[in-house]
What we know:
Blueprint: E1 4-12, E2 17-26, E3 31-35, H1 42-50, E4 57-62, E5 65-66, E6 77-80, H2 92-97, H3 108-118, H4 134-146, E7 152-156, H5 164-181, E8 184-189, H6 192-198, E9 201-206, E10 209-214, H7 216-221, H8 226-231, E11 238-244, E12 248-251, E13 254-259, E14 263-269, E15 275-277, E16 281-291, E17 294-301, E18 304-311, E19 322-326, E20 333-335, E21 346-348
Parallel strand pairs: 3-8, 3-9, 6-7, 7-8
Antiparallel strand pairs: 1-2, 1-4, 4-5, 9-10, 11-14, 12-13, 13-21, 14-20, 15-19, 16-17, 16-19, 17-18
Amino acid sequence: MARVELRNLTKSWDAATAVADMSLSIADGEFTAILGPSGCGKSTTLFMLAGVYRPTAGDIFFDGARVNDVEARSRNVGIVFQSYALYPNMSVLQNILFPLRFQKVPDADRRAREMAELVQVGELLDRRPSQLSGGQQQRVALARALVKRPNLLLLDEPLSNLDATLRLSMRAEIRRITRELGVTTILVTHDQIEATTMADRVVCMANGRVEQVGTADDLYLRPDTRFVAGFIGSPPMNLIEATVHEGAIRAGAARIAVTGAEGTVTLGLRPEMLHPAERGLQARVAHVEPMGRERMTTAYTDFGTIRFIEPIAAPARDEGELMHLQFDAADTILFGPDGRRLPGARASLPEAAHA
Ligand code: ADP
Ligand code: MG
């Protein structure tokens, strides 16, 4: 297995830069997710790790050895794509054996069968891919990627083609299998739940750049940037753009006190951290959406549209209803004009502290 290090990795095409100055260290056996919206450079990063794309600048190290000039097939990397890319005319067993075809592996057949057992397709070895369900094809693709005992397993949106129930079980399955093998794994996904449930650490990317590297809690509770704050969480954090003047931001009759920041800021308020109260920030209910355990309300305030979440058992709200919202200063996050979090900055509604 391998330790992986990316140093100032960059990939540019004629027209655009897909990955810009990416640096990242991944421990041996770690499960890392690269998370970001479509087009942010996730697959390009994976292709550079696999040796398919040559970096424009920067270096890649496996266990401390630079691999920029090592060919794809000598890197011993296993890849699983969203489109499982199985060979349609081969049986399951032949598909799993395929990566070993040029290697003198004396026990290739036994290894392929073991891998098939591990991913639970041991009963299906004689079938063709067309005779398998989507989930079974995904398992075969995984076995094929693992049969070479790769230093590194790369998964590019591997669950996107599966239905919701299957995705849930495959998430846990992939986690079990990679743990059992201790293989260093990098999962690429645009799905934040997939990333945060499966990975030890998440790398959040936007526009080819790393926005933040951290645990699920880091990204949710302590987003480094405005982008991460708006990307993580469903519904996402409310982001209010404003200017701090004389210790407050103002809009219409509303006033929110701000400490630790001056000038242009973005105030972040998570929907579950806003609470209805007797006094506070005035809001007019626009619409109410039941979401199972919780209810999401969209409301208009002087600072713009805000969403908040309440337990489904809270008193019902009517559209057009006038109400007030409170929040704790400790729950607030502020970002500066460069989009970076201002540590220590807080916002509060002082006049309604005893509402
Ligand atoms: P993601 O996997 O995060 O959706 P990609 O890494 O595939 O994003 O793409 C990142 C950016 O690089 C996109 O803007 C995409 O259009 C561009 N890109 C990807 N591959 C190529 C290519 N072969 N030639 C030119 N541009 C590319
Ligand atoms: Mg992609």
